[in-house]
UniProtKB/TrEMBL annotation:
Residues 32-166 form the MOSC domain. PANTHER family: PROTEIN YIIM. Coiled coil: none annotated. InterPro entries: Benzoxazolinone_Detox_Enz (IPR052353), MoCF_Sase_C (IPR005302), Pyrv_Knase-like_insert_dom_sf (IPR011037). This is MOSC domain-containing protein YiiM. SUPFAM superfamilies: PK beta-barrel domain-like. GO terms for molecular function: catalytic activity; molybdenum ion binding; pyridoxal phosphate binding. It comes from the Bacteria.
Length: 219
C-alpha cells in the first residue's frame, strides 16, 4: 500500500492576486499554508477561492496537489525558494510520485477521500505569478504537472496527515500520460480512453471527442 504525507495545506483566502490588465482582474493562484485542520467540501477546501470557474475548480478540480520532490527540482532549477502554495496547490505532498499517479486512484487523507482526476495545464497567470520568462514552456517541457483531485467523501485535512492510496485502477493511465497527451505528444490521446470516466465532468466530453477524431484520422 502506497503512503505519503501532507507537508502543508494551502488556500487563497480573500487576499487575491491582482491582474489589472486581464479579466476577471484577479486570481486565486497565490495560496498560503494554514494551520490546524481544514474542512474539505465537495468543491474544495474551506477558505479557498477559484476566481475563473470556467477553467478552475469544479467537481473534478476541487483540490490540487503538488509534490515537494517536484518543487525541489524547480528550486534547484531557478535558484529561488518555492514554499508551499507557490504552485497554486492546495496540498504540498511528500513521498508520492504524482506524475506516476494513476487517474482514478483514491487517496485517504485525514478524514477525506480524494480521487486523482487529471493533470494541471499551466496558464499565463502562473507565468505572471512567478515572473519567470517562458515558464509555461519550461513547465511543459519538464512535465511534473501535479494532480487534480475530486472529493469523494468530505472531511478535514491538516499538515502532517498521512496519504494512503487505498485503490489504484489497473488501466495504468497516469497523470504524466495525460499531460503529455494534452501537450507535447497529442498522438497519445487514445491512450486516455480507459480513464475517461474519471476525468473532470467539464472536460470529459471534449477529450472524448478529441480521442474520436484522432482515431478516425489514423484509422
Amino acid at each position: 500500500m502506497t503512503t505519503g504525507r501532507i507537508e502543508a495545506v494551502c488556500v487563497s483566502g480573500s487576499d487575491l492576486l491582482p491582474l489589472p490588465d486581464r479579466r476577471p482582474g484577479r486570481s486565486g493562484i497565490d495560496k498560503r499554508p494554514v494551520a490546524g485542520r481544514v474542512a474539505v467540501g465537495r468543491l474544495g477546501l474551506d477558505g479557498d477561492v477559484q476566481v475563473n470557474r470556467r477553467y478552475h475548480g469544479g467537481e473534478g478540480q476541487a483540490v490540487y496537489a503538488y509534490a515537494q520532490e517536484d518543487a525541489a527540482w524547480w528550486v534547484a532549477e531557478l535558484d529561488r525558494p518555492l514554499p508551499p502554495g507557490r504552485f497554486g496547490e492546495n496540498l504540498r505532498t511528500a513521498g508520492l510520485d504524482l506524475t506516476g499517479a494513476v487517474l482514478g486512484e483514491r487517496w485517504r487523507v485525514g478524514t477525506a477521500l480524494l480521487q486523482v482526476t487529471d493533470c494541471r495545464i499551466p496558464c499565463a497567470n502562473f507565468e505572471r505569478f512567478w515572473d519567470v520568462p517562458r515558464l509555461v514552456r519550461r513547465f511543459t517541457a519538464h512535465g511534473a504537472s501535479g494532480a487534480y483531485l475530486r472529493v469523494l467523501e468530505t472531511g478535514d485535512v491538516g499538515a502532517g496527515d498521512e496519504v494512503t492510496v487505498v485503490d489504484r485502477p489497473g488501466h495504468g493511465v497516469t497523470v504524466g500520460t495525460a499531460f503529455r497527451a494534452y501537450t507535447t505528444q497529442k498522438h497519445r490521446l487514445p491512450e486516455l480512453a480507459p480513464a475517461l470516466p474519471v476525468l473532470p465532468e467539464r472536460t470529459r466530453g471534449r477529450i472524448a471527442a478529441r480521442i474520436e477524431r484522432r482515431l478516425a484520422a489514423t484509422g
